[in-house]
Amino acid sequence: AKKYIVQKQFDGLPKSTDLKIVEEELPPVKDGEFLAEAVYLSVDPYMRAIITQSKNSDYPVGKHIVAPFGWRTHTISTGGPFPIGLPKAWIIPDPEGLPLSFYLGVLGMTGNTAYFGFLEICKPKPGETVVVSGAAGGVGSIVGQIAKIKGCKVIGIAGSDAKGKWLVNDLKFDHFINYKDPKFKEKLEELTPKGVDCYFDNVGGQISSEVLHRMNKHGRISVCGSISTYNDKEVKAGVVQSDIVSKQLKMEGFMVYQWWDRWMEGIEQNKRWIKEGKLKCSETVTKGFENTLKAFVDMLQGGNTGKAIVQI
Ligand code: NDP
């Protein structure tokens, strides 16, 4: 078995010398345990694996599971629950002809982050204006499409014009703004003549301050992530709080596992929308366990369109 270990704490973007791949001899599988072999890795700490040996009747040989095992080729486990509140490994239902890798993306944590994080916190109404940052990524591309399904006007923010074309032409977002465009602020104003009712925020920082400034009274902001700040060493000035006060905005952060008891609801709904042709998904697949770190750094720098995964 092989696994990644951290040699040195990251200083800014992760470097190849910060992590090391080591070989390890696994012990025999004990009662209550099973052995899982990684098939796909998500370049966050999630992976999909197939069970190759088992002494645990809840996790039979041949089943595919999703579990937070880290970046490793083989893992012996009891199935969890895992540290920091992560739930048990879950067995993938019949994929019904869809690719198994979708269970790391649109039919897994990524899809549920979009489904619950947007619908439960933004509570969108038909005709409202929705802005999504990180719009061409795994979570953001699904949020925008769900907003269209709910009858909203959708504006996606992402970092390249090629991503913008994909959002508008393929995913049917109404508009796109490149946050690297020096006229970002003016374009946002131009495209939101009636203000912004819902903001799904994946990135934080300056982009979010500009969007907050366009929010309507009683607007709702779902704070999913703040990727623009993840590699910062110091806390920088945050959002413009005066907008939150003056417009009586509701801003709420979430952790997707707070909806663990409804997990399959999100997955089944996203699956139905895929089958009805209402939800499209894209994956950026990197091949080879030894390229996992590269895939991770590429994702942090915008190299992915849709969900970033590694095929072992
Ligand atoms: P993505 O597929 O969206 O990949 C990250 C994207 O972020 C990149 O493609 C890049 O696209 C964009 N990005 C990178 N740096 C910046 C920057 N400085 N400013 C603006 N955009 C930037 O990742 P995920 O879909 O996996 O995750 C999206 C967000 O959701 C993350 O913040 C993640 O932490 C969060 N998350 C939160 C969960 C929760 O429970 N709260 C659960 C899962 C994810 P571009 O080319 O547009 O720059």
TrEMBL record:
GO terms for cellular component: cytoplasm. It is found in: Cytoplasm. Residues 16-310 form the Enoyl reductase (ER) domain. It comes from the Eukaryota. Keywords: Acetylation, Cytoplasm, Fatty acid metabolism, Hydroxylation, Lipid metabolism, NADP, Oxidoreductase, Phosphoprotein, Prostaglandin metabolism. It catalyses: (5S,12S)-dihydroxy-(6E,10E,12E,14Z)-eicosatetraenoate + NADP(+) = 12-oxo-(5S)-hydroxy-(6E,8E,10E,14Z)-eicosatetraenoate + NADPH + H(+); hexanal + NADP(+) = (E)-hex-2-enal + NADPH + H(+); leukotriene B4 + NADP(+) = 12-oxo-leukotriene B4 + NADPH + H(+); dodecanal + NADP(+) = (2E)-dodecenal + NADPH + H(+). SMART domains: PKS_ER. GO terms for biological process: prostaglandin metabolic process. It is an enzyme of class 1 (oxidoreductase). Its EC number is 1.3.1.48, 1.3.1.74. Pfam families: ADH_N_2, ADH_zinc_N. GO terms for molecular function: 15-oxoprostaglandin 13-reductase [NAD(P)+] activity; 2-alkenal reductase [NAD(P)H] activity. InterPro entries: ADH-like_C, ADH_N_2, ER, GroES-like_sf, MDR_fam, NAD(P)-bd_dom_sf, PTGR1. Monomer or homodimer. PANTHER family: PROSTAGLANDIN REDUCTASE (PTHR43205), PROSTAGLANDIN REDUCTASE 1 (PTHR43205:SF7). Belongs to the NADP-dependent oxidoreductase L4BD family. This is Prostaglandin reductase 1.
